[in-house]
Design a protein that fits this description.
The chain has 770 residues and is mainly beta. It contains 5 helices and 43 strands. 5% of the residues lie in helices and 54% in strands.
Amino acid sequence: MKIIATRATFPLFFILLALGLHAQTLRGTVRDASGGEVLAGADLLLTGQRDSIFRTAISDEKGAFLFDDLRPGYYTLKVNYGGFRPMVLREINIAGGKESVLDIAYNQNVDLPLLTIVNTSDRRPVQPLGEIPLTREQTLRFPATFFDPARLAMAYPGVMNNDDQANGMVIRGNSPASLRWRLEGVDIVNPNHLTNAGTFGDRPTAAAGGVLMFSAQLLDNSSLLTGSYPAGYGEAIGGVMDMNLRSGNNRQHEFTAQAGLIGLDLAAEGPLSQRENGSYLVNYRYSTVGLLGQMGVSFGDEDIRFQDLSFKLHFTGNRGGEWSLFGLGGLSKNIFTHKTDSAEVEAFKDFFDIDYSSKTGIIGISHQLPLSRRGWIKFTAAASGQSNERTSVSDAFEDFDSSDELNESKISGAATLSYRFGPQIRLMGGAMVNRQRYSANSTDRRMPLERIEHTFATAQPWLSLYWKSKSEKTLVNAGLHSLFFPYKDRSALEPRVSITQTLTPGHRLTVSGGLFSQVAPLWLSKDALDLLRSWQAGLRYSWNAENEWTLSGELFYQKTTETGVDAGFASSYSLLNESEYNIFEGKMLVYDGLGRNAGIELNAERYLSDGWFLLLNTTLFKSEYRGSDEVWRSTRWDSRRIINLTAGKEWQRDKRPGQVRSFGLNGRIGLAGGLRAMPIDALASEAAGMTVFDAGEGFSVQQKDYFRLDIRIYWKRSLGDRRNSTFAMDFQNATMQENEAYRYYDPFTLQVETKKQLGLIPNISWRLEF
């Protein structure tokens, strides 16, 4: 198969190269974020970051603008329109061989900050407190992200990784399982390959994995909401990853090919017809992680493979309506083969053949319509599903054989309405309905296990009112979100409020708070399934300077008032410490446990300008919980501190007219306190032949501090109007730090062992755009 694919690729490559010739241009459309109508007569000023040369344009009657004959590099775009605050878009990358297309949703906002994000689907009147914008350009530029927005988010305050093997996010002391993934405005299943990566029990997780299934070629800008999010978001107490897919180029065909040690990535986009009313975008990836194993990089001696195919079709109607059809299919597996030579056996795992496989599918459709010049309405429906299977078999230890099968699916539908009643008042509302199905079946010779099955539907209606003062210095967002849950006839009414006050130009103070709920982990039995409830509040100060700097500080507090704890006896157990699917637990729970997270985030960011950028932040926090024994303890995620420094420099020169060379060096330092674990009862573990924790003390053992240095070195070549190529070398954990993952009892060595996280992970890649 590999030989056939290679032979077919070369003639196809040169055919596509001939079709892809065009000059560097930046074009797009300016729209009113409130109503969605195009804005004719908007003034646009484009400035290159290498020099003082600038260009101007005015949007036409269709809101369209165009800048052509641009030299490759980074640009800043300033937009002005009568009655609107100036809008600044930074870090716009113009690459040789690619046409950049922006659909600018212009917010008539209070003292709008200097944005770096241009999100075609983001038509909110104000950026929510605790939101982290994640741009596609940053995903491609920051070191060791592996083009994954979830890994990019870990460079920002309040977010840390729970294990290098996966993209699980610990957000302000919350479990990674408390995160929800959204795509095009609707909830979906976990969209990651290798969902068992980095887990203690080698079982899948609800919201993390080794690799995000969506390639950076397909993703538009995304957002991570870390707390006190508005009424349009629900069924999540820890955070929401809100992803959008970009539309393909509707005027000309473009292609991207990327090959590296991690995998092969191919993308194509272009118009569906000559009328420019439709476009396609398709992407395929195939993993080559096995090459790293041959280089000596250890992934636990596992054969890791994955592949995915994703697409988006976009259509525009005569009256401003838009249709989109999107989908994804992903396959992944990791295989561990037992050691045949007894001299090579180092751990109990070496006696087993372990096969893990996962299949994921997503298909969806959306339709958006303008409502006169004051509003818009959008409908989205999607079906998503994931199947995970795992077998562990040993000829020497048949009593330890096991097999698991876990299936989850969601059918989601959402409607959103936005209407502006005047220059000061805007109303948004909608509803989301999710039909969820979950089943888990396990066999284990050591213990009896029950089959878990759930089929239920949740409804989430919501309403938000935005008001701003005549002076435009005060903005209020008050809303109500509801979650209706069929089990036990439970429901939640969740008020939300956010108030932003402009103190002086560039200086803003925001206070927000609200109630949030989330359905408990689905691996629980029907009798134990209920809602977790959480109160959250935040106070944020931000300063957006006239230059490239942004400074901010935020105080946050979260109190979980209803979480599952042991019902049978007093213990330290709490659902707040769970992350992976715990298929072996048959606990009876009562939802009167408590939790609290409190801390401060400080962030300084310099956007890319004059060839360099910087992002420095620190988070100091405390995360505690109370079980049924009424004792307050540190949660599993109570690392107490997170410090990140990301910086980079790019040097650029013109080799000859139309041909630009760039060299870049970017680095990231991550430092955090260690996560926590339960102590292991060595005697009980030896008697049971497996790890037995001393649960009476809770998570009283703190791992060593976490440290990691990531480096990215790259060379970019823009060869006139023909193509743009990038050769890059990424080094994750460049200092080969041996960070702790977890501790366990090994029946072969008869002692407690420490599992280390990943060592040095190099990724050499070559990217061609034409």
